[in-house]
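task queued by scheduler; priority normal; single chain, no ligands, no partner chains; default sampling; output format set to C-alpha cells
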Amino acid sequence: MTAVRIGADPIEALMDEKVLITVDGLSPNEPVTIKASLEEDNKKFSSYGCFTSTRRGRVDLGTQPSLQGTYTGVDSMGLLWSMDQEPCHEMHIRFQKRDVTNPVVVNIKVFKGHITWDNLFDPHLKPLAESQIYRRYMAKSVRREKVGHGNIRGVLFTPPGPGPFPGVIDMYGGGGGLFEHRAALLASRGFCVLALAFFLYEDLTTVFTDITADYFIEASKWFSGLSRVLSTGIGVIGLSKGGVYALEMSRHSSTVKAVVLINAVSFYSDVPLKFSKGDIPCTEFHFDGIVPTKNGLDFRKAQQPSDDFFIKAWESNASVLCIVGEDDHCINPQLTYRFLNLVPKEHKHRFHVIKYPGAGHLIEPPFAPHCI
C-alpha cells in the first residue's frame, strides 16, 4: 500500500502568501480529516476540514471542498485563517507573534474518517501522515533594529537594498506594549517601517493621562528624516486608539501624506491629550454604556462624542483610508461614518472607506488565526 503523503508548496513562505496543501496515497473516495495546529506563546490554535479523496486517492485543498470543519467549501487557505483556540483554553485568547525573527510553525496531520471538533483532540488518534509548514512575518533579508532615539521607543524594520524606501509608522491600540508582526510583514514587502510604542513599553509611561501629542510629532519628524526613507512623505497606520495619534501626526507633521485607520478612534476620547501647545479636551467615557454579553463586553454605547470632539483631519494634507469591521463591538462603526460625514465637501476626495461586513475589532494581515 502506498504511504500517505502531505505536500505543501511552498513549505516556507510569508504569512500573506498562499500555500497549496495536498494529500496523496489515500484509497479512492476515502473520507479523511486534515488538521492544522500551531502553538505560540503557550497558546494553542487548531483548525480542521473533512474531505473525500478523489478516485486517484488525492485531496487538493485548492480544488476540493471541506465538507465540514472550521471552514467549508473550497479554500486553499481555509485551514490557516479558520484556526480557533483549542478547548484547553478559556475563551477570548488572541494569536500574537511576539518574536517575528522566527517563523510560525504549523503542524499538518491527516486522520482517517470524518472527525468532529469534539473528538479532534483525542490523544489516542493516530495520524495517517503529518508534516510542517513555516510561515514568516519577517523575511530573512529584512533588518530589525530596536529604536531608543530621544523619547522614541519601538522597532525599525528595513528591507534589503540601499533604499530609500517608502516609509510607514505602525501603531496598535490602547492595550499598550509593542506589536511588530504587521510592521515586519510590510518591510518584507518593501516598506521601511517603524513599529511605534507609546504606552506600557520599556521606560514609556504606564499612565494613559501622561501620553502626549508631542511624542508622536517627534516620532514622525525623526522617522521621516531618515536617509533610508523616501523624502516625499510617509504613511501612518493606527488601529483602535492608535487612530487618534495617527490623525494627530497628520495634523502637525506635513511629512505625513497618508493615514490608514483600522477600526480606529477618530475623536478625542477617554482622557485629555497632553500637548505643549495646550492640552486637548476629550469626550466623556460612559461606563454605564458598557453592556456584558456572552461573547464579552460591548463598548459601542460607551462613547457618544459630539461633533466638536472629532479630529479635524481634513486640516492636514494627508489622504485617509478608514477600514471598518461592521460587527466591531469595541468602537461603534457609526462613529467612523460620522467622522467621514463631517469632512468638508472640498476635502472628501481624500477620505475613503472599506467596509467588512461581519468583521470585528481586530482586522489583521491575512491567513492568521483571527479568534478572540
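post-processing summary
- The two ends are 43 Å apart (CA to CA).
- The longest strand covers residues 229-239.
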